[in-house]
Design a protein that fits this description.
84 residues; single chain; mainly alpha
């Protein structure tokens, strides 16, 4: 303690130690929050990638189905025309 005061020395020491503890933990807490934010952002990016891939697969399936329908209708139409 720097100089004697009217407050009990134990109280001032406890407050000082609490302040030092908070200041000492601040960098670790800040890094912890940063890592949590990065993990959340990475997880969200991965989830978006999976969702986009599923949507692209559904579009590809729809296109494939439409192409097969066109091929089946086209070949059935040509077979019916040949039989006449």
């Amino acid at each position: 303690m720097a100089f004697p005061t009217a407050v009990n020395d134990q109280i001032t020491d406890a407050v000082t130690q609490s302040n030092v503890k908070v200041l000492g933990e601040a960098p670790a807490v800040a890094l912890g929050q940063l890592y949590q934010s990065l993990a959340q952002a990475s997880a969200t990016a991965a989830q978006n990638a999976v969702t986009n891939q599923q949507n692209a697969n559904q579009v590809a399936l729809a296109v494939t189905t439409r192409c097969v329908q066109s091929l089946v209708r086209g070949s059935a139409g040509s077979v019916a025309a040949e039989q006449e």
